[in-house]
Amino acid sequence: MGETGLFVRAAYGAAQPGGAHMSNAMMSGELAARPEAEDRHGQLDPMCHDLRQPLAAIMMLAAAASTEAGVSDTTRVRLDQITAEAEWMSSIIREVLATRATTEDIDLRDTARQTASDAGRGDVACRMQLPDRPVRVRANATLVRRAVANIVDNACRAAGPGGTVDVSVRQTGRWAIVEVDDSGPGYGHIAAGCGLGLEVVARAAADHGGRIDIGHSRLGGARVCLRLRSEA
């Protein structure tokens, strides 16, 4: 396995709750679009709606239990872990339900501006490079915004205090591209439990006939490139 492959293995090793590693099929430099079953939503939507209430109850009960007098530090840590796992599952459910939203024409420049602004941290320099002309895709705006926000937020975490994150948008042939570079040390060095969510990004790309590429940045950290089919 080449250097880039090893880098992505480190990234995905930290991405799952409890430090679980993803399958080798997901540990390459390029995450290609994966086919999805046509009836996925029809089967999953009712279950997702049914799961939301018990998950919310689990989080509320765990939070209440952690405030009880006499709870040991060890028990409180376990309760926090239960809450984190429930929140992770809840986020997956939100992503599945969001895919039911209708598609629309969006300008990736606007998406990049908004997500970079939301993820902005005073201790990380977030620089933008946007073209003068719109970079349009027809997509689920919610999924694309979450995917880009996930990438930018992870880059800010990886860069750390005093680091730099570059966000650029461009049109290359049939691809509309959002590229995010960070100054490192890279995803593989983010503390466990931060939740990289790279599979969520890959799924959003796949749902729109695109992909993500992960490699080394000129800034010294990671480069994540989200490619979506352009409407141009």
Features:
alpha+beta; Heat Shock Protein 90; two-stranded antiparallel sheet; 45% helix; flat; 232 residues
Describe the structure.
This protein is an alpha+beta fold. It has 2 domains: 3-31 and 101-229, Histidine kinase-like ATPase, C-terminal domain (Heat Shock Protein 90), CATH 3.30.565.10; 40-98. 45% of the residues lie in helices and 20% in strands. It has 6 helices and 8 strands. The protein has helices spanning 3-13, 40-66, 73-98, 108-119, 141-159, 198-207, and strands at residues 30-31, 104-107, 125-129, 136-139, 164-172, 175-182, 211-216, 222-229. The strands form 2 sheets. Strands 1-7-8-6-5-3 form a 6-stranded mixed sheet. α2 packs antiparallel against α3 (73-98) and α4 (108-119) crosses α5. The longest helix has 27 residues, at 40-66. It is flat, with a radius of gyration of 19 Å. It starts with a helix and ends with a strand.
* Overall pLDDT score: 75
Fourth CATH level, the homologous superfamily of the largest domain: Histidine kinase-like ATPase, C-terminal domain
What's the CATH architecture of the largest domain? 2-Layer Sandwich
Give the strand order of the largest sheet, numbering strands 1, 2, ... along the chain. Answer: 1-7-8-6-5-3
Main sheet properties: 6 strands, mixed
Helix content: 40-55%
